[in-house]
Amino acid sequence: MSTQQEAIKLIENLNNQLIKITKETTSTRDTRTGYEKLKRWKERASKNISSKINQIEGDKLSKKRKGSFRMGDPLGNFTDEAKMYIGFLDALKDELTNYPDDVLERAVPAQVSEQKVLESNTIENNCVFIVHGHDELNLLRTKELLRERWALESVVLAGKPGKGRTIVEKFEEEAQRASFAFVLLTPDDVIQKNDEEYSQARPNVIFELGWFYGRLGREKVCILFKEGTKIHSDLDGVSRIQFKDSVTEVTTEIEAELIESGLLTK
Question: Is the pTM of this model over 0.85?
Answer without folding.
Answer: no
